[in-house]
Design a protein that fits this description.
With about 475 residues, this protein is mainly α. Helices cover about 70% and strands about 0% of the residues. It has a two-stranded antiparallel sheet with strand order 1-2. Strand 1 and strand 2 form a beta hairpin. Helix 6 packs across helix 7, helix 12 runs parallel beside helix 14 and helix 13 runs antiparallel to helix 14. It is flat and about 150 Å long.
């Protein structure tokens, strides 16, 4: 039931406040009745009893909170919070989010009740003392119920592991040791998924190691059982023994499939979340290709057309990423021609992967996004490499740096990637700078260029010279 928190100072005595509190009291009374029914021996499982108890305490504490009975509110709400914290460890991710939301809401109400009771002074100390005193007694009171809930949850998970359906075939797990190992593996898978969702990658390597150990133990148990059944088959062949051998082999393939799938997930997590050199990524993609090949070799995968198409798409996708990283290695080594050829090969692999994914069934959106990201990266890297190769053919001259202080007309051959800087630049200098001109001492007007001066050679004086001097002078 959704509660309405109303401020007494704003609508004190109003009908809305009275109605909301009345409905909240009725809900709390009905929750207590539900608690009495659920706690009847043998009627509900322990986990349901805890959930009903926490719900009833939460509503009772909410009523006390609205009536400003701070001691009762703190006691009831802390009791509900304690149960919800324990229940959050026994459920899947979706239900855990709901429990955490309820715990946060209860925490806010508890803090407000403690503040209203004693003021801001000593609030943290008050909360710690109350929690130590009341939760300690509460833990003793509910310890047996919590243990029963944990045992019941584990039994339910064990029953879920007892029968496995894979590729439309049901497999019964009769070996108790194998069931325990598979249950432990599922618990580790749940923890890994939660860590990935919370983006807490620091603990992932240890969790993956524990998961692979659980799968290894399960595979060892299956191998021992298969050897024992095969020994019996050598002495006396029967249809029952053949059925047992077929079941054990199928379980072996199932465990192998789970282990290889998680190994691929771990490798992809390393590629996405950890920075690595291009050469290291090449080795990781080699590992992925080997895992895909091993999964495709399983009989159940070979007989399923959808799995075959998905495996082909994965192979082309991972080969494309591998070629892309090989091209990066060649580019770093200065081998531009080889890098361009590898970029083209990576693009062809990505296009083939996209065509195979179009024929796949199920949710392949993640792989399609990886294909598009690969094509975009290849296109960008290839353009950069082609530009660098062009600069090398031009004598190794590097492009001049863009100067925002100069006008665009003066640096029209310079390229800039900063669009914001281009918007602030000017096309030309305006007004233009002054230019110096030659100064003529006689005339300062344009008519000087069009004046025709008279010839003065006839007025120049002539000097007389002798015959002999004139001959020598002319020669």
């Amino acid at each position: 039931m959704k509660r309405q928190h109303l401020v007494d100072g704003d609508i004190a005595g109003s009908r809305k406040l009275v109605i909301s509190r009345s409905r909240l009291r009725k809900a709390a009374a009905q929750a207590l009745v539900l608690k009495a029914v659920a706690c009847t021996e043998g009627l509900c499982d322990p986990r349901t009893e805890l959930e009903v108890t926490a719900y009833a305490d939460w509503l009772s504490g909410s009523v006390a909170f609205e009536m400003q009975k701070w001691d009762e509110a703190i006691e009831r709400l802390q009791r509900a919070r304690f149960i919800y914290e324990k229940l959050s460890t026994l459920c899947d991710t979706d239900h855990r989010v709901l429990y955490i939301q309820r715990i946060d809401e209860i925490e806010a109400n508890v803090r407000f009740s403690a503040f209203s009771k004693s003021g801001s002074a000593g609030l943290e100390d008050l909360l710690k003392m109350q929690q130590a005193a009341r939760i300690g007694a509460l833990a003793d009171e509910l310890a047996s119920k919590i243990d029963l809930a944990v045992a019941h949850t584990r039994q339910t998970q064990s029953e879920a592991v007892a029968e496995i359906v894979w590729h439309g075939q049901a497999m019964t797990v009769r070996n108790e040791r194998l069931r325990e190992h598979l249950q432990r593996a599922r618990a580790k898978e749940f923890d890994i998924d939660q860590k990935i969702k919370d983006d807490a990658t620091a603990d992932l390597p240890g969790l993956y190691d524990e998961l692979f150990m659980a799968y290894g133990e399960a595979a060892r148990v299956l191998s021992d059982d298969l050897n024992a059944v095969t020994a019996k088959e050598g002495k006396n062949v029967s249809q029952k023994i053949e059925s047992s051998v077929s079941l054990l082999k199928m379980l072996q393939n199932y465990v192998t499939y789970l282990k290889l799938s998680r190994m691929m997930e771990r490798t992809q997590t390393l590629l996405v979340r950890q920075a690595a050199r291009a050469a290291d990524k090449v080795h990781l993609y080699d590992t992925l290709l080997q895992n895909v090949a091993d999964i495709a070799d399983l009989p159940q995968q070979r007989d399923n057309p959808a799995s075959v198409r998905l495996a082909e798409a994965q192979v082309h996708l991972f080969k494309g990423y591998r070629c892309h990283n090989l091209a990066e290695c060649q580019r770093q080594a200065g081998k531009i021609a080889e890098a361009l050829a590898l970029y083209d090969r990576a693009a062809s692999y990505a296009i083939m992967a996209r065509s195979h994914l179009a024929d796949c069934e199920g949710d392949v959106a993640a792989y399609q996004a990886q294909v598009e990201a690969l094509l975009t990266s290849i296109r960008g890297d290839r353009c950069i490499l082609t530009a660098n190769r062009f600069l090398e053919t031009q004598g190794g001259k590097s492009a001049q740096a863009w100067d925002p202080a100069k006008p665009i007309l003066d640096q029209s051959g310079t390229y800039s990637e900063d669009l914001a800087a281009l918007k602030q630049c000017r096309l030309v200098d305006f007004p233009p700078d002054f230019q110096t001109i030659s100064c003529k001492p006689l005339f300062f007007d344009l008519a000087n260029n069009h004046i025709a001066f008279p010839a003065l050679e006839a007025r120049m004086p002539r000097t007389a010279m002798g015959l002999l001097k004139g001959l020598f002078w002319k020669s």
